[in-house]
Predict the structure.
Amino acid sequence: MSYLNRANGYAPTGNVNSEPDLVQRPRFTNKVEVSLIDWMGRDGDIVNAARVSTKGAASLGMNEGARGLISYLMRNRHGTPFEHGAMKFLVTAPLFVWREHHRHRIGFSYNEESGRYKQLDPVFYVPEFARTQEGKPGHYKMTDSPGDLTALMEHELEYIATYAYESYDKMLKAGIAREVARMCLPVNIVSSCYVTCNPRSLMHFLGLRNAGEAQHEIRAVAQQYEAHFARLYPETHKAFIEGGRVAP
Amino acid sequence: MSYLNRANGYAPTGNVNSEPDLVQRPRFTNKVEVSLIDWMGRDGDIVNAARVSTKGAASLGMNEGARGLISYLMRNRHGTPFEHGAMKFLVTAPLFVWREHHRHRIGFSYNEESGRYKQLDPVFYVPEFARTQEGKPGHYKMTDSPGDLTALMEHELEYIATYAYESYDKMLKAGIAREVARMCLPVNIVSSCYVTCNPRSLMHFLGLRNAGEAQHEIRAVAQQYEAHFARLYPETHKAFIEGGRVAP
Amino acid sequence: MSYLNRANGYAPTGNVNSEPDLVQRPRFTNKVEVSLIDWMGRDGDIVNAARVSTKGAASLGMNEGARGLISYLMRNRHGTPFEHGAMKFLVTAPLFVWREHHRHRIGFSYNEESGRYKQLDPVFYVPEFARTQEGKPGHYKMTDSPGDLTALMEHELEYIATYAYESYDKMLKAGIAREVARMCLPVNIVSSCYVTCNPRSLMHFLGLRNAGEAQHEIRAVAQQYEAHFARLYPETHKAFIEGGRVAP
Amino acid sequence: MSYLNRANGYAPTGNVNSEPDLVQRPRFTNKVEVSLIDWMGRDGDIVNAARVSTKGAASLGMNEGARGLISYLMRNRHGTPFEHGAMKFLVTAPLFVWREHHRHRIGFSYNEESGRYKQLDPVFYVPEFARTQEGKPGHYKMTDSPGDLTALMEHELEYIATYAYESYDKMLKAGIAREVARMCLPVNIVSSCYVTCNPRSLMHFLGLRNAGEAQHEIRAVAQQYEAHFARLYPETHKAFIEGGRVAP
């Protein structure tokens, strides 16, 4: 179709924006972004928190026994020592990821861009490859699709995003409130959010979201979380893996 | 394109479904729906829970002193007696409402339709009137717009919804996974969710969401919640109002 | 010792209370009590909550497929459908049990007797048998003790409880505030509490507390919870057992 | 101490410890202790978290507008930006304080000494002054008592603590399990606990516990928390005070 010239790449042709300032040109991405902004605590703090139960306030830091203790706590689901840390991330991901992410209620704090308070930027997520599904809900097998399905997907997602953002922009310029105009935007528009959690709540997230059943995009967020987690808490992460990725 | 003739106005023409199974005709609504499905507890149970502190396990039910006790608990933010009840609702609302609603984490349980597990129905929310905003974030004054802005809004929202659902349907029929195809759907598509809360968590919701700063659509959900709440817990609701709508 | 005449049973001799109204005679119990006061929801409601994900708002109640669905949800740790119910218990147990119980923060609501607001009754928990422990923390093997250890335990617990309550009473009668006087009371004094939870949070409790590592007394509470739970939610309980008693 | 003379009544003489290792001599304290162990976040982080709503991911740190923003968030109960920090404390306080403290469930993590896993040390809290109460529950007026009531209180609390710890020790030495022997210990025995919270959950605690209605001892914990909080988050603390000490 003429409105989207694929010969020139995935982006809509200049026609959309032929009048200056009429509307920002949409941008497309197949990435989610995770930055670790701040953190508190290391493996040794988990050990100290656990040892207050058995030794009172004396704390000993990491040593060989400490590794065994972390492993013991994990296996026996003694979860509270894993709560005395914090990790703060800044994450950019599409709305359909946020809808899943925000369902994690316990040990997670969020502050996300608001479509009521600001004009959302025209950045949209389009997967690198289309996927097909087989199997029943909860047991889907997803397979990367051949090129023609990917081309169809790109075409459709970019086409809708482009027109939707144009409609959004038109409504805003006509004076319609942001909270109304945004109603036309698709769930692959990206949004930034601060996410703060603790090692325990993060492991719960990782167990469910860095897993085969999880959708590719939230898994991509989870994988980046897990890389940070493994670096900050190497012994805890090791015990999490060895324990079958079940949060304590 | 034939099925959406902009020259003829903004609603899709009847042609949309002239070919069987091509795509479901989109439906538009300006309503949110709330049904009370089940509940546990009444005013007297709050009184009994509070009195265990002062009288042990003996319980007395509602009486004049009980009304004063509810009012006292509310004013002094003794919140726990208001947690020993439950209300289960089935709510149908657009995704942008769910995005705000799901941010209520404590004392709220959710099960919502999944765009990964089922094909979403083509039902989209379009406000009865467009709105304009004045003022700064957090102090917006929203005003219902004159007819031409409402006409523009209806046109744009219906136009994008119609095209988006057609894209969605096309991708599904081509074999693309639901979790990918849904990425083009706008945030005014409606979705159903079970919501279970307790009187305390509901009052917290009502204090923030049945309030002037809240967006019209989540306020419409909150108003229906509040009508059920007032009927189930008349004394508690009265004390909530008298206390300035601050949850204990 | 003369102050506690075991020939007359476990209770202190009348000498303690020889002056009328000086102090209430302590009572001893080796039981914890759990009453189900109210509830909302059955197995079918879990099924309906889960099905909203896949079928939207239509609900179907229990049937053969429903049993499989509950089992599937449990095995795959899809926990939220198990939150749309409520059970309210009135529980009487010693303070050392409450100290463990109150550590269950999520999905549990509590209102307990207050030592600041009322004079606590002189009822104290004494185990039926003394126990000895072997092994390391977290792997204790507890064994019921021979009669002489049980006699020693009864003697000591009853002796301290009796004198402590007498001190408490003396301080109260002298005009000392309840919140100060109660500081002498031992942690085996019993207290009543309303406890409201949902099937998911209760299963988490049962997995940890109706288990070999749990202390006998909190396990006795958990066993009574579990009996009520099995009766109200037979299919869910069955799936919980079959899944190795791991809460979803 | 002269007031504790077995010859004159029920208190243990110095003989109690004349045989080495028979039993530790009890120690008494009228203090609670709070140490800040670790923290994450400052005022500027609250501002950044809030601004993601209105400006996306760009963050600006503290400045004059930032102060106004914190105040605005506090007054309008926008609580989530106050959750992206953490403070970890090590606190030593009597059990009756922990029983109140642990009732704070949301945004609080705890690891406390366990009477099942270790022998508790014989350290007991005795207030500096006895108190008398006037008024109804929830409106008590507490007054420091004249010297004779304080002397009575000290006598009774020290007497019971001494005997209880002696009983505890005797049961342990006879081979009774720690979890049973500890049942005789009074609620003024002190215990150490790691407490991790965030600025929002801490303000909720401070609003209820550093307040006139709170018991002196938990207020003493809260006051020390508040001193740390005011130092780490001066602007947030100022806004909390100006807003009437209501957590957002």
About this structure: Residues 1-26+128-185 of chain D form one domain. The helical segments of chain D are 43-55, 64-75, 95-101, 147-174, 178-181, 199-209, 216-232, 234-242. Confidence is low (pLDDT under 50) at residues 1-20 of chain D.
